[in-house]
Design goal:
The complex is a heterotetramer. By secondary structure, chain A is mainly alpha-helical. In chain A, 77% of the residues lie in helices and 0% in strands. Chain B is an all-alpha fold. Chain B has helices at 11-34, 41-44, 63-78, 82-87, 89-116. The longest helix of chain B has 28 residues, at 89-116. Classes of the chains: A mainly alpha, B mainly alpha, C mainly alpha, D mainly alpha.
Amino acid sequence: MVPLSWYIILSAVVFSIGVVGFFTRRNLIMIFMSIELMLNSVNISLVAYSHYLQSMRGQVLVFFVIAVAAAEAAIGLAIIIAYYRNNPTIKVDEINLLKG
Amino acid sequence: MPGTYIPSDYLPVLITFLLAAAIGMGALVVGILLRPRRPYAQKLTPYESGNPPVGEPRYRFSVKFYIVAMLFVVFDVEAVFLYPWAVAYDKLGIFGFVEMMLFIFILLIGYVYVWKKGAFEWE
Amino acid sequence: MDMSSGFSLLSIRPIVPELTMICTALILLLLDLIVKKKEVVAVVGIAGTLVALYGTLRLYGFSEPLTVFSDMFVLDGYSNFFRLIFYLNVILTICISLRYMVIEKASFGEYYALLIFATTGMMIMASASDLIVLYLGLELMALSTYILAGMMRKQPRSNEAALKYFFLGAFSSAFFLYGISLTYGLTGTTNLKDIAASLQTLNITGNPMVLLGLIFMIVAFGFKIALAPFHMWAPDVYEGAPTSVTAFMSVGPKAAGFAVLGRVLFSAFGAMQIQWDSILIPLAVITMATGSIIALAQTNIKRMLAYSSIAHAGYMLLGIIAGTPGGLASTANYLMIYAIMNIGAFAVVIMLRREGFQGENLDDYMGLAKSHPVASALMLVFMFALTGIPPTAGFIGKFYVFMEVIDAGYTYLAVIAVVFSVISAFFYLRVVMYMYMRDPREEVALATSPSMNFALAVTAVMILVIGVFPSVLLDLVKFSIPGLL
Amino acid sequence: MVKYILIPLLPFIAFVINILFGRNHIKDKAHWIAVPAVFASFILAVSAFMDVLGGKVININIYSWIVSGDFNVSIGFLIDQLTAVMLMVVTSISTLIFIYSIGYMHGDGGYYRFFAYLSLFVFSMLILVMANNFLLLYFGWEAVGLCSYFLIGFWFHKKSAADAGKKAFIVNRFGDFGFGLGVILIFLTFGSLEYVKVFENAGSVAGQTISILGYQFDTITVICLLLFCGAVGKSAQLPLHVWLPDAMEGPTPVSALIHAATMVTAGVFMVARSSPLFNLSASAMATVAVVGGVTAIFAATIALVQNDIKRVIAYSTVSQLGYMFLALGVGAYTAGIFHLYTHAYFKALLFLASGSVIHALHDEQNMQKMGGLKKYMPITYWVFILASLSISGIPGFAGFFSKDEILWRAYLSGGLGRFLWFLAAAAALLTAFYSFRLIYLTFHGKFRGTPEQERHLHESPPVITVPLMILAVGAVAAGWVGIPPIFLEHADRIGEFLAPVLGHPAGEGSHAEELAVMGISIIAGLAGILIAYIMYIRKTDLPGKLGAMFQPVYRLLYNKYWVDELYGKTIVQPTLKASDRIILGFFDAKIIEGIVNGVPALIGAFSRRFRTIQTGLLSSYGLAMVLGAMFIIGFWIFLR
């Protein structure tokens, strides 16, 4: 059987990849996917803990995270589209109208 | 016993983080270092099943696709809540039923809203 | 997790205000499809909020906290007091947006529905006694405010604000979830009280993983309340978002963030106060410094108020750092006062916005006292209050926080805070100086409306009344928050 | 109790009504609101005074503003003998000046505004004197400053007035900063701000020290010096006196009420009120005495050479305030308050009378362009004479009794006091000189203005002259409540009345000594008048005849102009220039313009530097968050 710590380390690794992706990627969609990666890493650890602890709370939370992530995806894409309509770029380092 | 299975030494935490950072960064660095970079024109053209490329590779989808996709994702994912309810239907009884009807009703309001706003109309 | 047993209609009483708000929001969504006049939608929104307020007042003052849904949701004086802040916030925001959103050509019915949804999210946050519910409330609030920030679809600045807020918000949510998962894994529960119990029974208060989970949660809450260095989104988003939304966002999510920060820290991690205190103290100092100092160089008033709100978050944090019931009450008190004075200030900013005139630059305030003495006098009151000059309410807010933090033995923090308040006086009083001591460059007309006048009158009067009769508010706070959570 | 609350409340109500409805409804009837209100509060003050006279001391807390643990800030009144005297002074003079203003400000565009501010001032001043704790005192203190600032700049379209207002504001910031620190230190030391508690515990704190930058200082001395800082600013003592002469840019009733009779004496009142603290610190007392004595002579010398009629009186005010501080400094608190009280009448009279002159001359203030007004304005002339005799310390007049008491007490205190007495006696001579120089230049001789002005010369209307005459009675008779025992046993009523609060001054001297001191001051006063007479009457009225008869004197008179210029060059101008350059140049440009607008260089630079951290880039914001989190994690998990 795979020990719990492996899941936890996997989760941490995936989370970290997401974090690093967040500020190394230039494309908004890729950044968004990095965030999804982070959320899913949390799901991994939650399910692993839930199984280990034999408690359902973790899995309940996973359900909510998935649902919220979907809503978030919808809103995120909508915002990106709204942005793209007025500004011809989704390269993140060109989005700096507001600063200072 | 919860809480006992994670060694409370500091080292594993450190290792976790270093490992995580190393893998994250490492994947990028190793890729850059290892992969041969010998670009030429043919290599850079997109692969289209062996046929000569037709038109621009970056074809712009209509924004309407996104809207429909978004709506699909939202309504589709909300359905995940139906599964646990279905599984535990016996135990939840009438309370669960009413609760789920409310849930679906609220989804329905969302649906009506989207419909009336004209998000489903392709034109 | 057996919910079927023991369920009766009576047991949902504590969530009646939330249900009212949700119903109101849904009605608004449908109403928007039917009626053309957005004012109707706004009025229904206010009416729904008032009904919820009535429900809250009916529930006010139970000595014992009411819990519901297997202890996932708790209604106590603490959450009730924060609800009052949220109601005030949403009602005043609707009042100041009516004409403004028309001017911005962004008068959509969804706007009001989203305000109500966001407020519901805040209410759920303030009442959550379980991390799952807390997460849901937080996301309900956050998702609504992301859209609100981008309400002006045709304006690149609004688009950008929404974009930045969304991405950074989602990023911080991920941190929050990671923190939850660590806490859950170590304590085996997500219920705040049970977490506290587990920390004791398992004796893992010194466990670095627990601390890691706590830190991740603090990062996420710090994002919502704009603590440096998690504040970077705030100036950009505040500047780009519609001004009415800025007013809403600078108060609501901050108050909700403080509500959950207080509840999580006191209720679940009370045993780790030494640790989180030593995390929060440097954060508070950096926050006060960042807000007060960078605000000095700003020329856009919305941006300046954004930095000001960052600085205020630093002062409010002092009450949490004090770690006493009084400290908690002083933070809640500060938040209420901050809500009033900040919305008032933004209301004046909104009045300057007309078709074809942005009215966001400090220069636009030059000589305002000559052409609009009443509006200038109101702005003067709000600026004085934000500075913390007696006899305005701002002074009372600061004073109590400082007293509590001194009582808790952190005199040096109070001294630092006073120093930064003095620095902050420069940029607040600069607005006053522009209004009263400069000659107007061009004639500025004001966009007033009855609802706007109402909001201004309410905020100004409340600031002065609380400033002169602070016990009115303080007694309420102390009654609501009698002890630690 | 309601009676006592109404005393400050009535003027406040008048203020609210006038400021709200004045612009559109009340307009030029503003005095119908303000005058009855302040008169009613005068009546109530008289009644309160009677209560105190009957042995009742009122100390009531009306409303607890802030309660936090053992910290309690309340609005409460203390009406004891000291406050009662102040109440009488403030309300009586306010009433007269309000009536006077009806005539003086008639037709001014800001008529309602004027009465509103003036009422607000009276309210603030009453709060200041009636407070029973230091915080309320501080509130009144700042509020009177604010009103003064508004009223100096009342004619804000006049640049000099706006500048003067600004100058007053800035200079007072210094004093008030010290005062504020003093109040904070009092709280930290005593744990309370209530007079009663502070003064009760003063003894037990004596000898305690606090450490400032590693040096040990006596706590009480530090507190007293900080409080005195505030007094120096508000009462225009060296070196913060520069604002008061400029403050004469305000309307004359304002100069009389705020910058002569009441507000500027707040410093004196505050030091007297804090006498239980000051008594414990010899060094603080010495400082007060020296500052007072030096200011008295310093300002008097400046007054000698001024040509602006109001500036002469303004410097005279500074000088007289110096006397009061001298009295306080040598422990003769009653003498200081006594002089405050008499000074209020004769100085208000001087200002109002000069206002009457200015009014008649259509805003001409230069004395060199006046002269011979005696026959046109007999009432003004005679009240001017009475006030000047009073200020010169001529026996029988109010100023004589109070000034003489101060000089005698200074003399008695020995050592340093003896030296200060000498300065003050010399200042008495100068006082008489400049007072009568003013009269001779203004009222005697030939009119030196334009024929156009001369045609319009007239006595002022009764609404102006009646208050003058009433004040003249005060200027003459106010001193009769403090006749020294040497003339009449048990006639020093005011001294005995104030004794429960301020105590009896120490020191005894023989009758011979007392008579000698008195004689010297009378001689000084008479000599000053005489010199003025010789120098101004003789020269201008009888130039040929007397000039021939008294050739050396004539030369001396000629030299007077040289002296004028010498003073101008050596004292007045360098002082004004230096103070202008230092205080205005540095603080005006840097603080008001610099701090508020341009932002102080250091923080501003910081701010602009830090601003660039906010790059506007999403990734850098995310990075900041992660780095912040990493920093906390690294610090609290790995390093600890």
